[in-house]
Design a protein that fits this description.
The protein is mainly β. 4% of the residues lie in helices and 55% in strands. It folds into two domains: 35 residues, no CATH class; 123 residues, Sandwich (Jelly Rolls). Strand 6 and strand 7 form a beta hairpin. The relative contact order is 0.27.
Length: 170
């Protein structure tokens, strides 16, 4: 049986900035409402606007640890091994526990060498409630077997996080 992938990426933010003058005159209240609504769909396949690989999991780390997500060797929910050739969407969401540190100093670090264009030992600190999202539906970020294929998440204490990766398989 052939597997297909349909994915929709949706981001929404809305709010209102209110400035109430100290003289309490109702006509002087200034509001600045905003809405940012983004949605994009990728169809099954390879090429621009397409993806055929999906990995998602909730990871529980106990104590200080480093998790190396090998983008060229990940099992899908059906138990099949899959190798991402290109990552088009990645999301890491803090669930509980300590701060997450995305990136690191490990050899073959995909996050440093390709996604952040060779920034040495780049790291993003994701505190409580934080979400990291990167999305590039046309070209994505390529992986390379043996030279840039690892996505690293470090924790200094026990932590739980969700991870979703969508892309093209090798």
């Amino acid at each position: 049986m052939a597997k297909t992938l349909a994915s929709t990426i949706r981001l929404y933010a809305a709010g209102k900035h209110i400035d109430t003058p100290t003289n309490n005159i109702e006509d002087n209240v200034i509001t600045d409402p905003f809405v940012l609504n983004f949605a994009s769909t990728m169809t099954s396949g390879t090429g621009s606007g397409k993806a055929n690989g999906l990995y998602h999991a909730q990871i529980v780390e106990t104590g200080a640890s480093e998790t190396i997500h090998d983008l060229r060797d990940m099992d899908d929910k059906f138990g099949a091994s899959q190798a991402f050739a290109t990552v088009k969407f990645i999301m890491v969401r803090w669930v509980s526990g300590g701060t997450l540190i995305i990136g690191g100093t490990t050899t073959h670090e995909w996050f440093d060498t390709d996604m952040l264009l060779y920034v040495t030992d780049a790291q993003i600190f994701l505190p409580a409630g934080g979400v990291f999202v990167a999305y590039s539906p046309t070209t994505g970020w390529p992986t390379d077997n043996d030279s840039k294929d690892k996505f690293i998440i470090n924790t200094s204490t026990t932590a739980t996080y969700d991870i979703v990766i969508i892309g093209e398989l090798a």
